[in-house]
Structures are given as structure tokens and as C-alpha cells.
Amino acid sequence: MRKSALSALLLFSSLTPAFAADDALTPPDLTAKAIELLGQTIAIESVEGKGNVPAVANLIADELRKGGFAADDIVITPMGETATLIATYKGTGEKKPIILSGHMDVVGANPEDWTRDPFTMVQEDGFLFGRGTSDMKFGLVMMVETLIRLKEEGFKPDRDIILALSGDEETHMATTMALADELEGADIVLNADGGGGALDENGDPVAYYLQGAEKTYADYIVTFTNPGGHSSQPRKKNAIYDLAQAALNLSNYEFPVMWSDITLESFRQGGLNTEGEIGKAMRDFAENPKNKRAIKILSERPEYVGQLRTTCVATLLDAGHAPNALPQRAGMNVNCRIFPGVSPDAVKTTLTDVIDNPEATIELADEVHYADASPLRDDVVAAVRKAVDRRYPDLPIVPEMSAGASDSLHFRAHGIDSYGVSGIFMKPTDMYAHGLNERVPVAAVDGALDHWHTLLTDLATGE
Ligand SMILES: [Zn+2]
């Protein structure tokens, strides 16, 4: 049964007393308001092709105006069926701006497949269900309500705080590129669509992950062509054999080991919490990233190999055209996750050397943007430390290089240090971003609002 938006909202209001607990970090009425706005954003199906992103932008703009933003400080720019929103919280201009980055679009969801209507937020079993709750309307709403809270408190930042919302992060990122162009020269990007805290199965905190780097996603198409002919008259030269050899060469190749401040610190901290041989290898690698034994052990683990180097792997094959014909064409897709700072062209050169057959053509499937890792800045780490300590004192803060790309990629490519600093804490087993029955814990709202409030009051007022 589908619940109406109204009955969902009534459910939230009946929840309000839970937030009034003595240990609440955020005024309970603000927490309730954030949940209400989250429900309103979820109700707008801002999926590619539906043309609904501008409606999300208008909703956010209304909320900001009601919360004290001047109409002139909010700019919505249509781009085809989607849009960007830039809202500026004016500061004294002593320092360069902070950008709060988020996206208004969501991945598609088929209501037939969901237990609940994906576009009606429902509160059940301590969770808020709906497409886009975790990716990333939750984070977006936390940033919006925090800016409104700061206005109400009369906060005067020493720099502009610019809310920059993209409208096609899940697909083309054209709006992200436009935002990154327009906002060039900013000091820091804080992205709500990365990082965040992990809880164990008992709900106890494990660590907070601060995302400061992303690997570059790139698909290369490797193709061999051949005049072909009748299969009763085979020749030595065969496109499938050439491709098979190319695939074998690739499987035997390892890209060189690389590291950054982020991966070394991530291994160091991971090593402290990991038992046995693996934990030792992580600590040893952090100590000396040329340690051959550590590299060998970590390279054998699928969950760590991507943190050590660029990886490229054959993922799709497409060869031949008839059972009784010599193949005229054989191709494979090679999916690469490129270490930050390495260009896709350099990877293509490596693939060419590894495949080592002048008859191979190797092409990127799509245009690829790439960026270097952001440095582990003291001011950002200190602000995150302060924010995390308010909920979980002394919880480890682990820097993270993620395998996929968010809006931060394009800001990093414009030279702006960018960090995934989501305020959410949840169990990895509750993560359903992009999947069915996407959800966030209701209990995370209070702490997440406090998290953004602490980050901004710390980073925007300086020493
Ligand atoms: Zn996202």
C-alpha cells in the first residue's frame, strides 16, 4: 500500500518528541523542519528525462528565501531540462569562498520494484525511505537548513559560503562543469555526497571517512579487425586470437604502485584496526610504500588493490559474426579506475605497450575528466575533528580515496580542494544508494545538522 505524502508527514510530526531527548545536538524544531523538507524534495521525481530538477531548485530557493536569504542571492540557471542553483551566504570577504556542493537529481527508480513508493518519503522502523534519501537529498537538505540556521543566529562568516547545486550529477555532469567554471577561485569545496561515518551492526561508531580523492573512471575499447573469410580455410591471423592474447597480456600486467597523503594515512589507520597479516601489511605500506612484501599481500586483496594503483580489467567481449566465418572483428571493453593525477592518455599509452600488437586500436569510450587528489588540509581536518567529536569524541577520522566520481571531480580539476564530508552515520548494510528501498536513519538527522553547523562555524570564521 502506498502512503500519501500527508500521512507520511503526520508520521514525522508524531516522531518529534524523540528528538527532544536531552542529548539532542540540534534544536528539535529544526530537525523536524529538515525532515519535512526532505520529504518534499523526495516527492519530486528529479530523474533524468523528467524535467523535474528545476522544481527541486525552486523548492530549495523558496525555503532559503523564507529562511532569510535575499532573492538576489539565489540564482537558478536552467540548462536544457535541468538546472543549477547557486545561493550565496555573504561574508566579509576576508578569505576566499567555501562552496557547499550537492546535486538535485537522482537515479531512476521503478515503483513496481519497490516495497514502498520511491517518490513518497515514508518513515518506518527508524528509517526514512525514498529514492534520493541517501544519494543525496539528505545531505542537500542538511546544508540548506544549516545555512538558514546560521542566518537566524546572525552568523557573520569571514568568507562567502556558496551553496552550489548541480542537476545532472548522476548522468552527464554538464551542470557540474558549469558550476566549477563559474565558481573558479574558491578555496574549498565541502561535498555532502561523499565521506561520512560508519556504524557497526550494533550501531556503535567505527570511523569517520573524509573523502579527499576519487579515482578516474574510464572505459577503453580495444578492437582487432581482420578481412575474415570461410572458417573451413583458417589462417594464422585471427581477430579473436589477437584479442585473447591482448586480454592475457592485460591480466598479467600490474600498473605501478602509487600513493598519496590520503592513501598512506588511510592504510595507516586501517592497519591499526585490522588484525593479522593484512593489518601488518597495511601498516608496513603506510610506513614505506616501497615495501615489496606489503604490496604483494595487499595486491592480492580485491578490496585494497584499487588503493595501491590504477587498475584496468576486461569487462565485456564482442567478437565474430557467424559460427562458420572467420571473425572480422573482435573487441573488448577494458574498464579502468585510474589513480588520481594520472591522465587517461597516459593509461592509453600503457595499454598500448602492454597489448603490444600494432594492429590493435585502443580508444576511450567517452570523454574523461580527471583530477589530482586534494591535500589533507589542516584546517579541514581540524573542522571535521571538531564536528565528529561532538557526537563521538576521538573517533578515528580516516581519509578516503573513493573508486567513483562525484561533483568534486570537476572542482578538483579546477584546482579547488574538495572534500566529501557527509554528516550521516550509518551501517554499511543499510546503504542502498542507487538501489531498491534506499533509506537513511531518522536518528542521523540531528547529528548531521550539528555536523554542518560545526564545520561552517569553524571553517568560515578562521582562527
Ligand atoms: Zn550522488
From TrEMBL:
<keyword id="KW-0479">Metal-binding</keyword>
<keyword id="KW-0732">Signal</keyword>
<dbReference type="InterPro" id="IPR002933">
    <property type="entry name" value="Peptidase_M20"/>
</dbReference>
<dbReference type="GO" id="GO:0051603">
    <property type="term" value="P:proteolysis involved in protein catabolic process"/>
</dbReference>
<feature type="domain" description="Peptidase M20 dimerisation">
    <location>
        <begin position="214"/>
        <end position="358"/>
    </location>
</feature>
<protein>
    <recommendedName>
        <fullName>Peptidase M20 dimerisation domain-containing protein</fullName>
    </recommendedName>
</protein>
<feature type="signal peptide">
    <location>
        <begin position="1"/>
        <end position="20"/>
    </location>
</feature>
<dbReference type="InterPro" id="IPR036264">
    <property type="entry name" value="Bact_exopeptidase_dim_dom"/>
</dbReference>
<comment type="similarity">
    <text>Belongs to the peptidase M20A family.</text>
</comment>
<keyword id="KW-0862">Zinc</keyword>
<keyword id="KW-0378">Hydrolase</keyword>
<dbReference type="Pfam" id="PF07687">
    <property type="entry name" value="M20_dimer"/>
</dbReference>
<dbReference type="GO" id="GO:0046872">
    <property type="term" value="F:metal ion binding"/>
</dbReference>
<dbReference type="GO" id="GO:0004180">
    <property type="term" value="F:carboxypeptidase activity"/>
</dbReference>
<dbReference type="InterPro" id="IPR047177">
    <property type="entry name" value="Pept_M20A"/>
</dbReference>
<keyword id="KW-0645">Protease</keyword>
<dbReference type="Pfam" id="PF01546">
    <property type="entry name" value="Peptidase_M20"/>
</dbReference>
<dbReference type="InterPro" id="IPR011650">
    <property type="entry name" value="Peptidase_M20_dimer"/>
</dbReference>
